[in-house]
Amino acid sequence: MDWGSLQAILGGVNKHSTSIGKIWLTVLFIFRIMILVVAAEKVWGDEQQDFVCNTLQPGCKNVCYDEFFPISHIRLWALQLIFVSTPALLVAMHVAYRKHEKKRQCREKIDIENLKLQKFHIEGPLWWTYTSSIFFRIVFESVFMYTFYFMYGWYKMPRLVKCEAWPCPNKVDCFISRPTEKTLFTIFMLAVSGICMLLNVVELCYLVLKFCMRKPKNIKSLPNH
Description:
The chain is 70% helix and 4% strand. The protein has helices at residues 3-14, 19-44, 47-50, 60-68, 73-85, 88-105, 112-117, 125-152, 179-220; strands at 52-53, 160-163, 172-175. A hairpin with an 8-residue loop joins strand 2 and strand 3 (172-175).
């Protein structure tokens, strides 16, 4: 997967984000995407090949692996990062539309380079787009964390699992490679996911509070008849 393209897109959104949003994006790329690409993928490697069971029964190893790992941790985290990052594309498309409209209305007067560097304040329709993207990020983070808990029910990677699914002849022992290292990575990824969710909640509360505080000021500024 080309994470560089995603970084380029979200980097454009970062310019129009709040300070909390900039922190969220930094945590996302440094502590989630980079860790996933640089370290976690090498630790997991070819999981199914390293999953060893004490039986030579054809199909038993595959069935046992599928029972305990219905989806790979790496693939689940990659899907989570894609879904969590996708709502920011709404903001990118909104900003691109605003720039296109401004360019169309002021075709002769506006400097294209200045337009590219222009920062839009989070207000009006952009406020609704931005807060909606944060809301969906929170929803996706929650859904994936619940999915992880539903599938595995634990963060600790066991050294040994026992399987008696068909076509295994009896209850067989299966061994997982690098269980301690995988446990540490799992704890780290879940902790950073929780931090990102907390940053999203704080940013959403900040934007809603700022919107509510601005509204009374707008009402007071209206002329009295």
